[in-house]
Amino acid sequence: MGIKVRDVAYVRFSAPDLDEMEAFLTEFGMVRAERSGDALYVRGLDGDPFLHVTHQGEPRFLAAGFKAASMRDLEALAREEKASIDPLDGPGGGSVVRLTDPDGFRIEVVSRTAIRCANRRACAGTHQRRLCDAAGKRAQTPCEGTFACEAARPLRAEREQFPRLGSVVQIAPRADYFR
Fold first, then answer.
1. What's the pLDDT tens digit per position in 127-136?
2. Are 11 and 53 within 8 A, CB to CB?
3. What percent of the chain has pLDDT over 90?
4. pLDDT score recorded for residue 167
5. What's the whole-number average pLDDT of the chain?
6. CB under 8 Å to 111, separation ≥6 — which residues?
7. What are 68-111's pLDDT values in tens digits?
8. Cα distance between residue 115 and residue 142, in whole Å
9. Per-residue confidence (pLDDT) for residue 168, from 0 to 100
10. What is the rounded distance in angstroms from the CA atom of residue 30 to the CA atom of residue 46?
11. What does the DSSP assignment read for 80-112?
């Protein structure tokens, strides 16, 4: 049966120096969404909470994330593949099913809730967004709040910003590689 993915959600890499990676991605036109001691999340301008993740470690590709059309599709995929549905790390929350393709690469299929700004006109292109509860403090899950505007550094800079990921190419040895 399977499901059809709606779009590319993000790519996930590891690199030894997160400061260097952040400088590179910022120069490339992305904007920091969140950073912890061992992970960097950056976003574009399309309203998604992040589109590139870098974890501290040896340089390598870790996974490609794809958007499921709905939570129902994600649940169907989990049942079919006998996989668990886990919380999605990073800003914006959501749920993820982690799979491995026949070549051993990790594929993450996600369903997100509450990923758009509640006051889009006030936020559009002017402020960073974050997931907040009604009291204005950071929510623990997407169900606890909606995006609110945060007075922060403007998104527009001298350089053009990176709007979103367009596609991810995976080379398969045979045309019938995937169902």
1. 334 444 333 4
2. yes
3. 51
4. 52
5. 74
6. 67, 68, 70, 71, 73, 74, 94, 95, 96
7. 999 999 999 999 999 999 999 999 889 999 999 998 999 999 99
8. 8
9. 55
10. 11
11. HHT---EEPPSTT--EEEEEE-TTS-EEEEEE-
Length of the chain: 179
Domain ranges of the chain: 5-113
- What is the domain class of 5-113 according to CATH? alpha beta
User: What DSSP string runs through the chain?
Assistant: ----EEEEEEEEEEES-HHHHHHHHHHTT-EEEEE-SSEEEEE-SSS-S-SEEEEESSSEEEEEEEEES-HHHHHHHHHHHT---EEPPSTT--EEEEEE-TTS-EEEEEE-SS-SBTTHHHHTTTSEEEEE-TTSSBPSSGGG-EEEEE--S-S--SSPP-----------SSTTS--
| pLDDT for the residue numbered 141 | 37
- Please name the residue that has the structure tokens 């969404």: 33
End-to-end CA gap in the chain: 8
Backbone angles phi, psi at 168, to 5 degrees: -125, 130
Task: Report residue 139 as tokens.
Answer: 């929510």
